[in-house]
Amino acid sequence: MKLGSLKAGGRDGALVIVSRDLDRFVEAKGIAATMQQALDNWTDIAPRLEALAKQLDGREVAGEPFDATLFSSPLPRAYQWADGSAYLSHMRLVRKARGAELPANAAKDPLLYQGGSDAFLAPTDGISLGDPDWGLDFEAEIAVVTDDVPAGVTADQARGHIKLIMLCNDISLRNVMKPELQKGFGFFQSKPASAFSPVCVTPNELGSAWDGGKVSLPLVSTFNGEEFGRPDAGTDLSFDFSQLIAHAAMTRSLAAGTIVGSGTVSNEDYRSVGSSCLQERRMIELLDEGEIKTAFMQAGDAIRIEMFDARGTSIFGAIEQRVVASRK
Amino acid sequence: MKLGSLKAGGRDGALVIVSRDLDRFVEAKGIAATMQQALDNWTDIAPRLEALAKQLDGREVAGEPFDATLFSSPLPRAYQWADGSAYLSHMRLVRKARGAELPANAAKDPLLYQGGSDAFLAPTDGISLGDPDWGLDFEAEIAVVTDDVPAGVTADQARGHIKLIMLCNDISLRNVMKPELQKGFGFFQSKPASAFSPVCVTPNELGSAWDGGKVSLPLVSTFNGEEFGRPDAGTDLSFDFSQLIAHAAMTRSLAAGTIVGSGTVSNEDYRSVGSSCLQERRMIELLDEGEIKTAFMQAGDAIRIEMFDARGTSIFGAIEQRVVASRK
């Protein structure tokens, strides 16, 4: 089934079911008012949502026309956003840009940071840029949402805790990041609010493209109307979501509604498939052409992030955002 | 006024008002069901809570007897936990222990990390320790809770956004921390769930001990029944909460219910006032006696964190936790 949250529901949105073809939606308010409520009681709630989804897909329920601008991120605010960095080619390129070393054990020990989750941008919200020199960049990622995960869970056990899958634009401020990371406490100012796709889906919606831990489909980023990258999210990742979740839960449980991100999707053959963020392309330019040609995002720049199934249908709807200058 | 959340209310607790003398409490359910709901609508809700608090303190409402074990952390789960490190003497000592440098600009540029907030421990919950070698440590801190803070707020403006104040035990795994921080993305596994005091208070409850940005009272940590430290939380801090909030909000807004922590309270004369975590004492032992004598916490060890007003009355109730072995 496919789910989303309407902005009209306020801070937590109003939970809706979206038809498989992204054509229509229906409110789930008789079952659960919000996405978080559904996740808090997933075992009880999910079958009732599935039943309504079946009615919507079978046109027993008419629903209303789907319009991405009505949607907030599936969890408009969340209790946890744990973002990984599972694609080594991305790590190698962006660390080169910062003059930072790849951690010694990068291929064996997952990298994960605690992200801000108090208020996510809606998928069609503008990205507010307070200072043109901050080095604004998009990062196209896959993210999953878990139910309650006990501390010490194994990767194998973690698979069963993945309840929903969605896309993410993990917005980064590259020029704020370098000095911030040098202080040793991770990201804070350099990671303003992320945005997620209008729709999140249960794993079964992905069919054979989902193996229990990763999505094997291209993630398409379009920058200012031109395709920028389409790396396959199931290729060249060092850790899948089951491993990232097990890592996150080593010393503590993860509560229902925890979002775990893959990190910027990147393939080793980035020269042919392109990239999922500007910083990667900038480093490829530096390596191949001796100079950086691509600028970071400025007011007016537009990013679209989407994923299509084998028949060419958009699975999650598009994240489609434009940069808006604020202050300064 | 003084507020708390009852465990009986489930994942978000049930909002209660606690009498000024911590003698009785009354449920606020006719006004707001949960602490988060109150914070989401603070301007409307706070005056109504204040009115009920007045009735409770005036014994017009009887209430029920206060019992800390009924209480969860004031926000049992939160959308944001941003923890600072505002006391340079703490930073200097613990970085020495990790063999890490103090950031060049530490006295001018606040240090803040994004903490996990999906499920806090209750103030009297056991601290689960999965591996005795993780190096479990307590950290006694002050924390504040904000309403909605706009991006780009100044420190002066930030003062008005501090709605509640409480105590925190920011639990740390020292031996997990060193390799984790070396990876460059901050804390994750090394910071399991924190616990907060049973009661949080509005700034006016602190009288002259609150200057709009810091609490000038000793924070008392008692380890296994013996006083361990009583540094003054208003002394030797490089940044007060107004500055930490302005730092946190430089590139993004902070949503209502954001918790901001001071970092481990520490004074420059730590040899006379003691410390608020084991790691500091360990480093002082190393400096003064050439060897570390204090071990990290093990199963059975007990920590109590509390703050008293000028008349000796506990302001927030006590965080009182015991370590419990789990797994291994």
Strand content of chain A: 15-25%
What would the average pLDDT of chain A be, to the nearest integer?
96
CATH topology (level 3) name of the largest domain in chain A: Fumarylacetoacetate hydrolase, domain 2
Major sheet summary line of chain A? 6 strands, antiparallel
CATH A-level architecture of the largest domain in chain A: Alpha-Beta Complex
N→C terminal distance of chain A? 44 Å
Helix count of chain A?
A: 8
Full CATH superfamily name of the largest domain in chain A: Fumarylacetoacetase-like, C-terminal domain
Please tell me how large the radius of gyration of chain A is.
19 Å
Helix content of chain A: 10-25%
* Run of helices and strands of chain A: EEEHHEEEHEEEEHEEHEEEEHEHHEE
What class, by secondary structure content of chain A? alpha+beta
What is the total number of structural domains of chain A?
Answer: 2
GO molecular function (chains A, B): hydrolase activity
Protein name (chains A, B): Fumarylacetoacetate hydrolase family protein
Keywords (chains A, B): Hydrolase
Organism (chains A, B): Flavimaribacter sediminis
